[in-house]
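Operator note (shift B, R.M.): manual run for Serpentine Receptor, class H requested after the automated queue skipped it. Running by hand, logging everything below so the morning shift can see what happened. Input copied straight from the record, untouched. If output looks odd, do not overwrite the archive copy; leave it for review.
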Amino acid sequence: MTSALEKYYATNYSQCNLEYNFLASWKGVAYPSHIIQLISLPFQILAFYVIIFKTPISMKNVKTSLLINHLFCALLDLFLCTVCTVYFFLPMYGMFFVGVLSWFEVPNGVQLLIVWLSMTFAAASYVYVFESRNSTLVQNKFRMTQRRTRVIFYSLFLIPCLLAVFVGKVIPEDQDAAKLFALIEYPCPTREFFTSEVLILFADKTIIEGVVRFFPFGCAYISSFFLFQVATLIYYICIAPSNTTSRDTQQKQKVFLICILLQTSIPLFLGMCPIMLTFMAFLTGHYYQEMANLTFCSLGLHGMAESIAIVTVHRPYRKAINQMITDLKKRKSSIRVSPISVHGTSNSVTRG
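Run finished. Output pasted below as returned.
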């Protein structure tokens, strides 16, 4: 800490009378996130296995999109829970990281870029799930049959990545002055603000107001790509199906549509709701550090929810899991029976 921060910590901060709270501390986001990753890992591996080896021929045209979606969701979970675990000060637009990369003193800016890219590509993979399915419908007038069209579409979607470079340019170079500015806006943060290498993203009221106003627009912009593909798929499967498609095929298409809607909506709902609730609490002046920590912990649950959704909503994957469980039970029972049969045989031989 600089002399100005030390003075503030010794005088002004002592009047805050903040009691230690595990959930508000760095441990409150680091430890639960690491535990979540350990619990999620088996489900993620299982989802990889069933997609690669148990996808039936009827789902072959969506196998690649499901695998890509699961890959980026698993990577996002890995970065948020283990590699670049985030401790975020929302009222002060500051952060530091408590993941594995922080042990190697990787700069906060680099870790921020990694998290941002992982979130962007995970969001794009959800769009790709529906877009790839749309492209298989011959009657769909909006399907993308040319590589050029698909490149333009996803380039427009990835505009937030370009904005990340712009955000890097407005990050204050004088971080000590930025921290003092942040303390004026929020005078009583947790002690981690003084004991950790915090990165302040914004220290200008004009920029902060612009970010607050842009946030809903950015969410709407990203959501529009996803909603367009979903709406198009619903229209051409449920409202205006092809006349050349049999009723049996149409019914299978509707069932699969419901499955991918459930598969994608469950993890998206789990991830987006805490973010929106925390942001609304911040705008209304009812923000607490515990809320930010719980938000990032809930984001870490996204990968596990996505993995469980994959292996449960799709019937072929459920059957594969049930068969694996049945085979495992048979192996256990055979192991228990075989020593008895061998013992019985040896006794009969002895008596003979």
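Quick read of the result: The chain has 13 helices and three strands. Residues 344-352 have pLDDT under 50 and may be disordered.
Leaving this for review. - R.M.
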